Amino acid sequence: MRRIVVVGPSGAGKTTFAERLAGRLEVGHVELDAIHHQPGWTQLPEEEFRRRVAIALDPEAWVVDGNYSKVRDVVWDRADTVIILDYPRWLVMARLVPRTLGRIITRKELWQGNRERWRNLFSRIPEDNILLWSWTTHGKLRERHSRAMEDPAYRHLQFLRLGRPGEARRLLEARKVGS
Hints:
The protein has helices at residues 14-25, 32-36, 46-56, 72-78, 89-106, 130-150, 165-173; strands at residues 3-7, 28-31, 37-38, 42-43, 62-65, 81-85, 158-162. It is an alpha/beta fold. It has a domain at 3-88 and 140-173: 3-Layer(aba) Sandwich (Rossmann fold), CATH 3.40.50.300. Helix 5 (89-106) crosses helix 6 (130-150).
């Protein structure tokens, strides 16, 4: 495991897990959200997003987190392992609600000066409301990842599906990561 992708629903803890895993392996960490989200929550144009992700993945070893289908081929073709944080929806939401509220209250900067906003919590548009986004995409991501595990195009990948935070913790604490 030297080129690892961490995927899962919003709020599962992908970035936290990926940062810890990268530290454990002493490799770089790439957060796709940090590349994709530009000031004012604008999205980086797809061609530029793909170019910047390819550059970020140039080193020999890394851990990347994110579910962006528009760069999936760039990331997964270079990876050797995909770790799926496949936690139950109730657990993801139980983590996401306090995280989101905490970020709003503290005005924590996420990427490029962007911050989560109170008004987004009342939006009925999933792309604007992280809670609604996570709720509505949870099952779709689970299906997408299940299909990917069976897809011959990803035969070169080792898939690790972690269904509980304890499994993720044990992987991080393993004497030799990947054992």
